[in-house]
Amino acid sequence: MKHILKLAAYTFGFLVLLAGAYIYSAVNQRRKFIEESVGILSMVNAAEDVAKLEPEFHPEFIWVRKFKDGSWAAARALDEEETDYGFTAALIYTGGGKFWLSSHGFCGFEGVEGELGAIKAESAAEFVAGAEAGLGFERYR
Fold first, then answer.
1. 72-102 pLDDT, tens per residue?
2. In which domain, by residue range, is 131 found?
3. What is the reported pTM?
């Protein structure tokens, strides 16, 4: 009986360590994506700059919207819920070092286009307010 309890304790401990490693891995991958996105989007000073980014940054997967007042917003998202890491992250950037972050899952770039494009706004400020209210974005930097 003692051996069975000992084996059960070791098995439980191993499972706890395995779960901890998995959670750390997901958190680390999410943090890495966020830092990478901040670095890429920080190079953008105007909506037109997104298309000029190096191909390695995949500008075709950065969503951009211009507003009537001349302001703009760019967004980059990654939905990894179905992968080993299991995380979602989305960043909105409006220039000048202003970022907003969400864990909302957009289901691919089409989801980003559809959901962010559906926010009614005439300025970046109105857009961000809509993203905060409807999609859980919060000020990141």
1. 999 999 876 555 555 688 999 999 999 999 9
2. 2-139
3. 0.78
